[in-house]
Amino acid sequence: MMLGSLAFLLSGLLQNAMDHVASTEAPPLSILWQIPEFVAISTADIMVSITFLKFAYSQAPDSMKSVIQAAWLFTIAAGNLVMVLLVAIIGDHLSRVNEFFFFALVCGVGTLLLLWGGSQFVYKQDVLVLRTKLLSNSLQSNLITEAQNTKTHGDSFAQQLQIKMTCLKGVNIKWFLLLDIIFKLAYLKHFEQTSTK
Predict the structure, then answer these.
(1) Where are the transmembrane segments (predicted)?
(2) Rounded Cα–Cα distance for residues 4 and 9 (Å)
(3) Distance from CA of residue 135 to its chain's centroid?
(4) What are the tens digits of pLDDT across the range 74-115?
(5) Which of 33, 81, 100, 196 is deepest in the core (most CB within 10 A)?
(6) First vs last Cα of the chain: how many Å apart?
(7) Could you tell me the sign of the dihedral formed by the alpha carbons of 47, 48, 51, 57, in that order?
(8) How far apart are the C-alpha atoms of 189 and 193, rounded to whole Å?
């Protein structure tokens, strides 16, 4: 959106130069001065559209992906309608240069509002990470309880619990559960061997 604001700012500067050329006998401006504006607005459009479509696809529930993308197209239509209404309301109250600067300011304010709203959003992946951390903390407390009961199981079990506690830190919960199963099987095998002797 900042690139959109930049495009309006460049349009305002170019319009100011064109008005200056029209009011004086200066040589006409080249049409190539419009290239930076088109590059900025095209880049802004591509970055916003692709980013939103990726965001909608990754964060929307499976049953709502089409609805979210339809809502995106509706917001584009509503934005175009607001622009038409603003131009009709502004009318001749602002010069064309000031109109471009006004829209650059509106885009800048919209960017700040989007940054604020985006900072409040909780990503679907973050929710999964939070659930994994809660599960991990629960497993750690269970392991601590098991470690307190090691007096009845002996030193080898305490060593296995210490290894599991070390492995738990920074490991994905699926891998920890797999390690937990392996350690329990190894302990049962060790317990069977020591009880048969």
Answers:
(1) 39-57, 69-90, 102-123
(2) 9
(3) 24
(4) 988 998 899 899 889 888 888 889 999 999 999 999 889 988
(5) 100
(6) 75
(7) negative
(8) 6
